[in-house]
Specification:
This protein has about 350 residues and is of the alpha/beta class. The chain has twelve helices and 15 strands. The strands form three sheets. The chain has a six-stranded mixed beta sheet with strand order 7-8-9-4-10-11, with helices on both faces. Strands 1, 2, 3, 5 and 6 form a five-stranded antiparallel beta sheet that branches. Bound molecules: adenosine-5'-triphosphate and magnesium ion. The site of adenosine-5'-triphosphate has 13 residues, from strand 2 and helix 1.
Length: about 350
């Protein structure tokens, strides 16, 4: 897998895709370096799959352009396809075939010779530790095994760039962790440039070197997870009160404090961004005590990517307990493709 081009692995220039009135991807300018593990993080409908679709030549841009490994996605689409692997959102495996047969089918589609197929299949099966289950029918695989087989398939023709669209959607947390480890290892040991999409905050945070947060088709923030969080400039303090009236008064008595950078309220909960959380808490509690306001609870935490998203868009990236919805979506997508 020679790094045989100079310049970035991916470069987009005002890349745009519209569906009638809707602009699913809106003038995206993005550069991904060779060897990078890049994450596209965004809520449902943000445009992640549409962006991956264009970069993998599956979907034609409405305007703008992009180069993958030096090749133009429109003018040199064949070369682009030879340079990339794609792991789609939702399963595209044939579950009536064995793992090995699924991989063989893919190799044939790519015009690989019988000998080469045999060699590559063994190689990728070992990479994802499925060699001992390769001759069983996919229907008997767990969700995590299926995902690993799909990753293996994406690696069959030794791509320079691997696109993974929601590689862990619908999997339980433990299996998700397991898949992250594979992704990280493949990125490091095989030096494959990886672009993955996710709406799992923790995944992006722990896995990706750099993250682009995408919302309504636009990249709203870009940087390493640490940079994005530190740009918020502070810690997050959450206070709760017994009544909404009190909560409003707490906002009033704290908003002008020196260490308070930002304050907002939602129902009984007050959310404060403060420069030095540990020092801000006593200052805040003194102010509320002076105003004879009772605070029910106080908590302090470091900012998460969710806070970054909230800061840039004014809303949370995802509601809580979406996991079950994800599982249902995953099943629906898997079903639809059959
Ligand atoms: N083929 C299509 N025709 C019409 N609208 C589409 C089509 N594909 C996507 N869209 C719309 O474009 C927007 C972006 O969709 P996209 O699938 O790219 O989002 P996403 O970020 O991948 O979401 P998810 O997290 O649910 O996978 C959505 O509003 C979606 O409804
Ligand atoms: Mg998607």
């Amino acid at each position: 897998m020679g790094q045989n081009v100079t310049g970035p692995a991916i470069e987009t220039n005002d890349l745009t895709r519209k569906f009638d009135e809707l602009t699913a991807v809106d003038s995206v300018n993005l550069t991904v370096k060779q060897g990078e593990l890049f994450g596209l993080l965004g809520p449902n409908g943000a445009g992640k799959t549409t962006l991956i679709g264009m970069l993998s030549t599956m979907l034609r841009p409405t305007s703008g352009s992009a180069r993958i490994w030096g090749h133009d996605i429109i003018a040199d689409s064949t070369k682009v396809r030879q340079s990339i692997g794609v792991v789609f959102q939702g399963s595209t495996l044939d579950d009536k075939l064995t793992g090995r047969e699924n991989l063989d089918l893919h190799g044939r589609l790519y015009g690989m010779s019988k000998d080469l197929r045999r060699q590559k299949i063994q190689e990728v099966l070992e990479l994802v530790e499925l060699a001992d289950r390769a001759d069983e029918i996919v229907k008997t695989y767990s969700g995590g095994m299926m995902r690993r087989l799909e990753i293996a398939r994406g690696l069959m023709h030794r791509p320079h760039v691997l696109f993974l669209d929601e590689p862990t959607l619908g999997l339980d947390p433990q299996t998700r962790n397991h898949i992250w480890e594979y992704i990280k290892r493949l990125n490091q040991e095989e030096s494959i440039t990886m672009v993955l999409t996710t709406h799992y905050m923790e995944e992006a945070d722990s896995l990706c070197e750099r993250i682009g947060i995408i919302d309504h088709g636009s990249i709203v923030a870009l940087g390493t997870p640490a940079e994005l969080k530190s740009k918020l400039g502070g810690d997050i303090i959450t206070l709760t009160t017994a009544t909404e009236e009190k909560a409003k008064d707490v906002v009033g008595s704290c908003k002008d404090l020196k260490l308070v950078k930002d304050i907002s309220r939602s129902g009984l909960t007050i959310r404060i961004t403060a420069m030095e959380g540990e020092r801000a808490i006593p200052e805040i509690l003194n102010a509320t005590a002076a105003a004879k306001l009772e605070v029910e609870s106080v908590s302090l935490r470091k900012p998460t990517l969710d806070d970054v998203f909230l800061y840039h868009t004014g809303r949370a990236i995802r509601e809580s307990s979406v996991d079950e919805t994800d599982r249902i979506r995953y099943k629906m997508q898997t079903h639809r493709r059959r």
